[in-house]
Write a structure and sequence with these properties.
Largest interface: A-B, 70 and 81 residues
Largest sheet of chain A: 3 strands, mixed
Strand content of chain B: under 5%
Number of domains of chain B: 1
Shape of chain B: globular
Radius of gyration of chain A: 31 Å
Number of strands of chain B: 2
Number of strands of chain A: 5
Low-confidence stretches of chain B: none
Strand content of chain A: under 5%
Shape of chain A: globular
Distance between the termini of chain A: 72 Å
Mean pLDDT of chain A: 81
Strand order of the largest sheet of chain B: 1-2
Oligomer: heterodimer
Largest sheet of chain B: 2 strands, antiparallel
Mean pLDDT of chain B: 90
Order of helices and strands of chain B: HHEEHHHHHHHHHHHHHHHHHH
């Protein structure tokens, strides 16, 4: 299956065009086309996963895509553990969301468009996870952004919705600048290639100057911030809840928003070396993640809209994943991505079920006491909440524990503390939501009832998964997940290698300037470029299988270890995995329970002082959170409106008044002062004859043309050509 | 097919003008005949262009093919030398295609004051000028074709234009003429400084002039001569700050005029840089490149900011051309094969995308009788198909990967990271970042436009009006563009495969002349 992996995104891509072009003919039945396509993709992804567990050889296929100058740009598929896992997650959640939408979107005015967009999204997202090079990654990255835009502004009659779509797209474009620049830098420093394996290998081998690598990593981080909702580019994500709820579950919780995390995991060589992750000490990646988990969680407290609570929660959880990768806990971050997809999708679809029952409202103030009226929703939502809060043995517990333990083991105490703070907040705000929705008296005006089966079955499946998937990487399950899904790349020690032997990609570069540059660089104590052995052609050889690889290569976990090797020695780099730690696990469970208790005390038992929010500093804090730390105001009113308003108007003023003013000035002056002179002195005698001839010709066209400005143009033209002729003569004489 | 090798290009170039003459001979009343003849002419021309494409030798796209070189004006050693290589071919095809689409589009609704006879004749004359420019290999021939397009476009704007047509048409004419004059001056200067190694005489032959050693000028002279060409081509592109004729011309021109202007005419300038200015005067190019790059990135940001300030859809699209052509010029300024490949791709992509945008803007104006964005809205409700096409085209225009626009933009930005080795890396890397920021602004102005025009409810004043969705001629005119935008986006090799070797030939020549290592 892995050789045919391109089929997995291709099927939904084809469906997109079918639904788009013939959707009207199928009507509501077009949803079955979408479901069928996703079902097929899911089956293929499952077969692929099954084969992967046996095989564990990376399979690569590629074809030429574009070419310019020295480079042939290829595009292809790269199926390894990470891709296999993502394929399963994306197809599973997408399939369930497709089914759920049958009922949720029934009768929608743009039902066919909705399914078309879902298909396109699934195709793009699946393409993203199997992309073998950064350019294909960029392509699918933008395409998922487009689908996100289409689906957020699905009900575009309302300006708020289209505004939300625009905000999402444009904020993401800001991050994309970083992605584009980062990819370009990596293209050149890795020896003119977009190939991800080669780039990773080059980054870890020490062939790229650290400063350059750091810049590239920072650029890519900007893209991570926008796509994966990290502070300060998270502002679009809560607004994105304007889209239909199944979309929020699929795109803005389970899959698309983790694309940034996925990219870090995929290009981990670049981030690991660029941010010196293995060397201890704080780095930007961990810091961004750490700050985001707390800031995101804090804002979740003041939301009344259940979807917004979940949106901020997503931001916070994405922060965990980014922080995990930042502290070097690769498996922890990826595992959290995996578990989060299921329990967060479960929560979002649960929220959809609530709104389905309560007259399309998401406002928790109009809910309450729903646990009896909607028992299945209550049960699944509670499971999702507990999984998110990290209560054992549910999914979130295992993955969150691994992250916190990673932060501890790799000596990132600040991140660990932030993680614990966010954990207590998570439990508390989710408890708040749970109590507001399901306990107390019903405060709305609808007649809530349980949602139909077609919606509740997917939710129940997701809840079931939220229970079990965490066990995959539990100690008693032998940490299977970590064995299946790992980051590994062959690395050759080229640190300090003087005049290192060039081979692979570098051989091509050796023809050109690179050889010279390389030699000079080596003399300066930098390192000549070296390509990874596993370029396209040799991919098969490289993927001889884990056993062969392990047999041949030592496995290392840090750059320091690579540096200690003999120059030119090749090893396999794998980030360290952090096994279960009972101390961390115990603390996080305890902290989670404290959070739940606080929520119980305030929202269930209503024991908190009533006027708490009216006194400082609680009032100030509350305002700050309601105002979203004023970051939205800054971005939207300050930067966006400033650019579109005064800056744009200013530049248009310059255009009209100054540049065009100058042009018109020259025109008027010529006409007023120079032209009369020329006219009276020369024109009447010399040029007129010629001009009249031209004029006659024009009239000769059967009066087809309106009378044109008394032929001024022709006259100007003749004048200019005379001038040129004279100048040319001068030049000729001088030459 | 021997005769085709000799006559293929010549026929492609001159069939339109023959058609134009026939059109003029038909009495004005017989509109159907006139339209039929014009369409037939353009179709035959397209057929010949496709013939060129079919007979083209793709294994050696750097070679000038269908080469015809016979004596013409012996007094000044100017010869009738036409040929195409991988850079010319796509542009010839684009020109021939666009004219067909324009004729189909205007089939049933010619702009006021109607008169299809004159308008169609002008379009065919334009076609000769455009295709001729892309095949000419002699400077005088090139110049004549380059100028042939001027008058028809001037009349198109001046006669069929909007309210302010007089000002716009004169501005267009004078601006371009001014540039042309200086360009001609440079051509003459080049001529007088050249010496054909075979004949020992001066020469206008572009191929000969591009050979090292034919042109013997000091660096200063090269810089000055390049300056003349820069003005001639740069005004046509148009580059900031010579762009102010463009928004006026576009705003006032009839729809087909705008389409031709955007799709092909602007490319004459960028093509001139690649075909004439860079190969003949590499030393001048080296000195000018940083400034061209600077103006290009200013154009990218400045054009985009001006777009954000627009209230008129058509004017917005016009300013977006300034921004997009900035990417093309940035690619050219790097003097690398990646950059110039991107430029050629960008030229074709911009031709299709912006051409289509102008088509849509024209169709909207026809239906709503206004282009004010504040009055428009709800296109997706009134005419959903048109709304989708507009959305698709806007996405292509903002450089969405997977559609054609991306392949003009991204490689140009990429090339700026590593320009030709004689150029300053720091300077161009700064340009790279600025250009990348331009992509954010592009998304902003296009999406804001889309939101205002297509989304939301239908405004009160159009509630009761029947807004016709895309009709027959529009479908025929737009479908090829839509398909090409998608096809080139998904399979960029379709175009890069043709241009790459030819571009490499140009950049290798420049690199050798400048003693730089080619990349």
């Amino acid at each position: 299956m892995a050789h045919w992996a391109f089929l997995i995104p291709l099927v939904p891509a084809a469906t997109y065009f079918v639904i788009l072009l013939f959707g009207k003919r199928f009507g509501e039945r077009c949803s079955y086309i979408g479901i069928g396509a996703l079902g097929a993709s899911w089956v293929m992804a499952a077969i692929n996963a099954y084969q992967w567990i046996d095989r564990r050889e990376i399979v690569r296929e590629s074809v030429e895509w574009a070419q310019w100058g020295s480079g042939s740009i290829r595009v292809g598929t790269h199926v390894d553990g990470l891709a296999t896992m993502m394929l399963v997650v994306v197809t599973s959640v997408s399939l369930l969301v497709h089914i759920y939408s049958l009922e949720y979107l029934r009768g929608d005015r743009r039902y066919t468009h909705y399914y078309a967009a879902l298909s396109l999204f699934s195709a793009s997202m699946l393409m993203l996870v199997i992309a073998d090079n950064t350019l294909a990654l960029l392509t699918s990255w933008e395409l998922v952004g487009l689908c996100s835009f289409m689906l957020i502004s699905h009900w575009w009659e309302d300006k708020d919705n289209s505004n939300a779509g625009l905000k999402a797209f444009i904020t993401n474009r800001v991050g994309d600048v970083g992605l584009i620049v980062g990819i370009i830098i990596l293209y050149f420093v890795a020896g003119k290639t977009f190939d991800i394996d080669t780039i990773n290998s080059a980054a870890l081998s020490g062939t790229i100057r650290h400063g350059t690598l750091l810049i590239a990593a920072c650029c890519l981080l900007a893209a991570v911030c926008s796509k994966s909702g990290q502070v300060p580019l998270h502002i679009w994500l809560p607004d994105a809840m304007a889209g239909p709820t199944p979309v929020s579950a699929l795109i803005h919780a389970a899959t698309m928003v983790v694309a940034g995390v996925y990219m870090v995991a995929r290009l981990y060589g670049v981030f690991f070396a660029g941010f010196s992750i293995g060397d201890g000490g704080m780095n930007l990646l961990a810091l961004v993640g750490g700050v985001t988990m707390v800031i995101g969680a804090s804002m979740a407290f003041v939301q009344n809209d259940i979807k917004r609570v979940l949106a901020y929660s997503t931001i916070s959880q994405l922060g965990y994943m980014v922080a995990a990768l930042g502290v070097g806990a690769w498996t922890g971050g990826v595992f959290h991505l995996f578990t989060h997809a299921f329990f967060k999708a479960c929560l979002f679809l649960g929220a959809g079920s609530l709104s389905h029952a309560c007259h399309h409202t998401f406002d928790m103030r109009e809910m309450g006491g729903l646990r009896k009226k909607m028992p299945t929703t209550f049960l699944t939502f509670t499971i999702g909440t507990l999984a998110l809060a990290g209560v054992p043995p549910l999914a979130g517990f295992w993955s969150k524990d691994e992250i916190l333990n990673g932060a501890r083991a790799n000596d990132f105490p600040i991140i660990m503390v932030l993680g614990f703070v966010a954990a207590i907040m998570t439990a508390a705000y989710m408890g708040r939501a749970l109590y507001l929705i399901f306990f107390g008296e019903y405060r709305g005006h609808a007649h809530p009832h349980e949602s139909p089966k077609v919606m509740m079955v997917p939710v129940t499946i997701l809840a079931g998964l939220a229970v079990v998937v965490g066990l995959l990487n539990a100690p008693f399950a032998d940490y299977r997940f970590g064995q299946w899904v790992k980051f590994e790349v062959e690395v050759e020690n080229l640190y300090g290698a003087e005049g290192a032997v060039a081979e692979g990609e570098a051989a091509a570069a050796a023809e050109g300037e690179h050889a010279a540059e390389g030699a000079a660089a080596a003399a300066e104590g930098e390192h000549a470029a070296e390509g990874e052995a596993g370029a396209e052609g040799e991919a098969a050889a490289e993927a001889e299988g884990e056993h062969a690889a392990e047999g041949e290569h030592v496995i290392v976990h840090s750059i320091a270890e690579i540096k200690e090797l003999a120059p030119g020695e090749t090893v396999l780099f794998e980030p360290e995995e952090h096994k279960f730690n009972i101390g961390v696990a115990g603390s996080s469970v305890a902290i989670g329970l404290v959070g739940l208790l606080i929520a119980t005390w305030i929202y269930l038992l209503r024991k908190a002082p009533k006027n708490l929010l009216l006194v400082n500093p609680f009032r100030a804090l509350h305002t700050l959170l309601v105002q979203k730390y004023y970051l939205d105001k800054l971005a939207v009113d300050g930067i966006a409106k400033g650019t579109a308003g005064p800056v744009a108007d200013g530049s248009y003023w310059v255009n009209q008044k100054i540049i065009d003013g100058a042009v018109n000035g020259v025109g008027v002056t010529t006409k007023k002062y120079l032209a009369p002179f020329a006219y009276e002195q020369l024109d009447q005698f010399v040029v007129d004859g010629l001009y009249n001839g031209l004029g006659e010709t024009t009239k000769g066209l059967g009066g087809a043309f309106r009378k044109l400005q008394n032929g001024r143009i022709q006259r100007y033209g003749l004048w200019l050509f005379f001038a040129v002729a004279i100048l040319a003569l001068v030049v000729a004489l001088l030459a | 097919m021997n005769w085709f090798d000799d006559w293929g290009i010549t026929l492609t170039v001159f069939i339109p003008i023959v058609g134009a003459i026939i059109v003029l001979l038909i009495p004005k009343g017989e509109e159907e005949t006139i339209k039929g003849v014009a369409l037939l002419t353009s179709l035959v021309t397209l057929g010949f262009a496709i013939g060129l494409m079919a007979e083209f030798d793709y294994d050696d796209t750097a070679k000038l093919q269908f080469d015809v070189n016979t004596s013409w004006i012996d007094v000044i050693n100017s010869r009738y030398h036409v040929a195409i290589d991988g850079i010319s071919l796509p542009l010839v095809l684009l020109s021939a295609l666009i004219i067909v689409l324009c004729i189909v589009y205007s089939w049933n609704h010619f702009p006021e004051p109607h008169n299809p006879k004159a308008l169609l004749a002008l379009m065919l004359v334009l076609e000769t000028g455009m295709i001729g420019t892309f095949v000419a290999q002699d400077l005088i021939l090139f110049f004549i074709f380059f100028e042939v397009v001027l008058l028809p476009m001037y009349f198109m704007i001046g006669v069929w234009g909007g309210k302010n047509r007089e000002y716009a048409s004169i501005k267009f004419f004078l601006f371009t003429l001014f540039g042309s004059a200086l360009m001609l001056l440079s051509f003459l200067a080049v001529y007088f400084s050249s010496k054909d190694p075979l004949t020992g005489q001066h020469t206008f032959d572009i191929v000969t002039l591009s050979t090292a050693g034919v042109l013997d000028v000091s660096k200063t002279a090269a810089v000055v001569m390049f300056g003349g060409m820069f003005l001639g081509f740069g005004i046509k592109v148009p580059m900031f700050p010579f762009h102010t004729w463009l928004p006026d011309a576009h705003t006032e021109a009839p729809t087909v005029g705008s389409v031709i202007l955007a799709a092909v005419l602007l490319k004459l300038g960028t093509y001139g840089f690649i075909r004439v200015a860079l190969p003949i005067l590499p030393e001048g190019a080296q000195e000018w490149a940083p400034y061209i790059g600077l103006l290009a990135v200013i154009g990218i940001i400045y054009g985009a900011l001006n777009c954000l300030a627009q209230k008129d859809v058509k004017r917005l699209i016009a300013f977006s051309s300034v921004a997009h052509m900035g990417f093309v010029m940035l690619g050219i300024a790097t003097l690398t094969s990646a950059g110039i490949n991107a430029a050629v791709f960008g030229m074709v992509a911009h031709g299709l995308i912006t051409g289509l945008l102008f088509f849509i803007a024209g169709s909207m104006q026809e239906r709503y009788h206004t282009r004010e964005m504040s009055r428009l809205g709800g296109l997706l409700i009134s005419a959903p198909k048109m709304g989708w096409i507009l959305g698709f085209t806007a996405m292509a225009s903002l450089g969405l990967p997977g559609l054609a626009g991306f392949w003009g933009e991204f490689p140009a930005i990429l090339a700026a990271y590593e320009p030709l080795s004689v150029l300053s890396e720091e300077t161009f890397r700064t340009y790279m970042v600025i250009a990348a920021v331009g992509t954010v602004l592009a998304a902003a102005y296009l999406l804001v436009m889309y939101q205002r025009v297509a989304m939301g409810e239908v405004p009160e004043e159009f509630k009761d009006e029947h807004i016709h969705d895309v009709h027959g001629p529009e479908w025929i005119a737009w479908a090829p563009m839509l398909i090409l935008i998608l096809a080139l986006g998904v399979f960029p090799k379709l175009l890069f495969g043709i241009t790459d070797d030819a571009v490499k030939h140009v950049t290798d020549g420049i690199a050798t002349a400048l003693n730089a290592t080619s990349k």
